[in-house]
Amino acid sequence: MTEISNFIPGVKRFRSGTYNSEFTFSTELAILENEHEKKGSSRLMKRIDFENGTVTGNILGAALPMLVAQILSLLYNIVDRIYIARIPGCGTAALGAVGLCFPLIVILSAFANLFGSGGAPLFSIYRGKKETEQANRIMNTSFTMVCVSATLLMTIGLVFARPLLVLFGASADALVYAYPYMMLYLIGTLPSMIAVGMNPFINAQGYATTGMISVVIGAVANLILDPIFIFAFGMGIRGAAIATVISQILSAAFVLHFLLCKAEYKVRLLHREEIRASSKYAKNIISLGTAGFIMQLTNSLVTICCNHVLSVTGGTLYISVMTIISSVRQVVETPIYAITEGSSPVISYNYGAHRYKRVKQAAVTMGIMALIYTLLAWLAIILAPEFLISIFSSDKSLLADAVPAMKLYFGAFIFMLLQYIGQTIFKSLNKKKQAIFFSLLRKVFIVVPLTYFLPYAMHMGTDGVFLAEPVSNVIGGTACILTMLITIMPELKRIEVENRRAA
After folding, report:
1. Is 65 exposed, middle or buried (0-12, 13-18, 19+ CB in 10 A)?
2. Got the DSSP string for 334-388?
3. DSSP assignment, residue 328?
4. The model's pTM
5. Each residue's pLDDT tens digit, 404-427
6. Counting Cβ atoms within 10 Å, is residue 256 exposed (0-12), middle (13-18) or buried (19+)?
7. Crossing angle between the packed helical segments 356-383 and 462-502, to the nearest 10 degrees
8. Model confidence pLDDT, tens digit, residues 13-58
9. What angle do CA 229, 235, 236 make, to 5 degrees?
10. For position 205, what pLDDT does the model report?
11. Burial class (CB in 10 A: 0-12, 13-18, 19+), 210
């Protein structure tokens, strides 16, 4: 019979004389328990090795958990809209009011991503270079900026919520629903921005599954709490906001616990004496994050412009139509975002590690995956718009106007993918100027002017508002991808050849 000591590492070590006589059996058991806990924890905290393994496997390993996370993240807003649209007696009006809150909500998310998406690629590049201290400093700098900006934005929002909503196109009737929702939502600004802004640093360390879990916690809580607060407690639109805030707090608590206690790189606020020395990191984070920030901020700007023009040319009903179309867009864009953002740490890490062949492989793999999905999603939108709209509203009059508007809005959806691919590569390789320019081009220089030009100068009414997006996708997306192919790919090939000669 095999000795039992062969199965107990501690006993085997004790018999071989590794331990002295002061060790007790209870001490040994405690050590064994700790070892087993570590093994179990490592299984739960499975990491992706961005330097080794197949590129496709690394991207899928990062993208699939991120996809689940992003789909569930939509539930924070999407579930609210579904429930709000079904509030007896005021569902459609309340849904339109929430649409008026989108610009403020997007602004909060944009600032969180400014520091998260700006810091994470730099963090990954320094990880690839094995410069641990600099990587940690970047994460801590991002965290400090997230916390400071969240406090300031919450204060400003609480003070100026009413005039801002009026500026965004809210009528007196709409303010009845929009104002209380926004005031309650703003209370959760800090946890919301921590959850959004710091999750990229979990993914950048290779803990994609853990990053997913942080979102799952918030989404499941929101699913449970929404009907309780909205219908069971009879709180209506206020209940939706309260449920969202509680969910955000739970998600942020998980993110902080992991980054403080479990992750390889531990997060903390910068000490006072570190702030000046970290200013150079802050500038780089903001520079790189500005592209994504502009994209989200300009989305808010576009929403404001669209709501304003639609309120004049089509009335409140068309604001609700745009709210639903925006919701559908979020749903169908989510896998694209997951694929590109899941690819980003793979690209950044290998770029920092000077493994340029893997950088190119990751870029090509990302493009193929995203293209296949986008074609399928585009086909579903064109063939079954009624089904997608019915998810958010059962209002028949709304459906009649929303279907042609949706077909028009998504008419050149495939070209938007080109923007995503180009922007991701620019950001992942720390190409700040290109990333910022193309963020501004598509939204600020094309969409916003067309939103006013087509309805008024071309007399297209509401159709002109919905047509502005596909036109910008064609022009902006094509320009972005061509610039990336002309500038980035030859550069990577040249560096790869030089490295091969040097070796």
Report:
1. buried
2. HHHHHHHHHHHHHHHHHHHTT-HHHHHHHHHHHHHHHHHHHHHHHHHHHH-HHHH
3. H
4. 0.73
5. 999 999 989 999 899 999 999 998
6. middle
7. 160
8. 333 343 343 334 344 433 434 444 444 444 446 788 887 788 888 8
9. 95
10. 93
11. buried
Domain limits, the chain: 4-42, 45-502
Between 82-86, 433-437, 485-489, the lowest mean confidence (pLDDT) is in 82-86
Is the CB of residue 65 less than 8 Å from the CB of residue 211? yes
pLDDT at 5 over 70: no
Query: In this predicted structure, what is the pLDDT of residue 7?
Result: 37
Distance CA 326, CA 283 (A): 32
Query: What letter would DSSP give residue 270?
Result: P
At what angle are helices 279-313 and 413-428 packed, to 10 degrees?
Answer: 170
Contact at 8 Å (CB) between 345 and 118? no
The H or E element that residue 109 is part of is helix 91-128
**pLDDT per residue as tens digits for the range 254-278:** 999 999 999 999 999 999 999 999 9
Q: How far apart are CA 195 and CA 200, in angstroms?
A: 9
Q: Is the pLDDT of residue 111 over 80?
A: yes
Give the pLDDT score at 75. Answer: 66
147-152 own/partner pairs: CB under 8 Å, 24+ apart: 147/190, 147/193, 147/194, 147/269, 149/111, 149/114, 149/115, 149/193, 150/108, 150/111, 150/112, 150/189, 150/190, 150/192, 150/193, 150/194, 151/189, 151/190
Count how many residues are written for the chain. 503
